């Protein structure tokens, strides 16, 4: 079937999916108009999910976001990572409602439990109005960060996955993490002045920081954390231990 919606002289699309929702992103404050996901979009996502490339599912999600957002001039790569999660959940709610069931494996005993949650009950934090995004590592070194964007995450994944010398899966995840922060560096201030580093310089700097310096960066990002809380605490029905349950995003649309 072609893209043309006019069959027998009728524009079917206006009758099939008439619903639209307005979403206000907790980070950028941007107002975005979305429509529910279609079966066609779901089929596209399945193709990405079968891929061995861990960045493929994210690209599939980007495509789904782009095709669900009606607002003009919308660029999914510009989304803050937290806003992107929020938007994905809103698209999911618009498409399938707010009830979500998934299976969780207990971190203590490994026992499985079925989790039923209402996505409307998750906590949402707004981005603080005023943030100081300069982290003082020591008296000679300050780093100015941008908030983490989907673009930074995408670039980091592309960079690390293209490097065939990194074979270990755990190392890949850690390296992607370092590159995400490296891509988000806007400026470095040293006694010689302000420097806008290349990605290699930014990575070198982060990779060679001591633990204290790295902690300062983690604390900065924790202090400005915003968006939807994707985890909650619950008692395991098997071992009765309290566990932190992470809500999985990947199965959300099926
Ligand atoms: Zn357990």
What does this protein look like?
The chain is α+β, with helices and mostly antiparallel strands and 254 residues long. It has two domains: 6-125 and 227-246; 134-223, no CATH class. The protein has helices spanning 13-16, 39-49, 54-68, 81-96, 150-162, 169-183, 199-207, 211-223, and strands spanning 6-7, 10-11, 21-24, 31-34, 99-105, 112-118, 124-125, 134-138, 141-145, 185-190, 193-195, 227-228, 231-235, 242-246. The protein has a four-stranded antiparallel beta sheet with strand order 8-9-10-11. It has a two-stranded antiparallel sheet with strand order 1-2. A two-stranded antiparallel ribbon has the order 3-4. A hairpin with a 2-residue loop joins strand 1 and strand 2. Helix 3 runs antiparallel to helix 5, helix 5 packs across helix 6 and helix 6 crosses helix 7 (199-207). The longest helix is centred in the middle third of the chain and has 16 residues, at 81-96. The mean pLDDT is 90. It binds zinc ion. Residues 106, 108-109, 111, 236, 238-239, 241 line the site of zinc ion (ZN).
* β-sheet strand percentage: 15-25%
- Bound small-molecule species: zinc ion
Number of DSSP helical runs = 8
Strand order of the largest sheet: 8-9-10-11
Q: Please give the radius of gyration in angstroms.
A: 21 Å
Secondary-structure element sequence? EEHEEHHHEEEEEHHEEHHEEE
Q: Which word captures the global form?
A: globular
What's the number of domains?
2
pLDDT < 50 stretches: none
The helix-and-strand class reads alpha+beta
Distance between the termini: 24 Å
Largest sheet: 4 strands, antiparallel
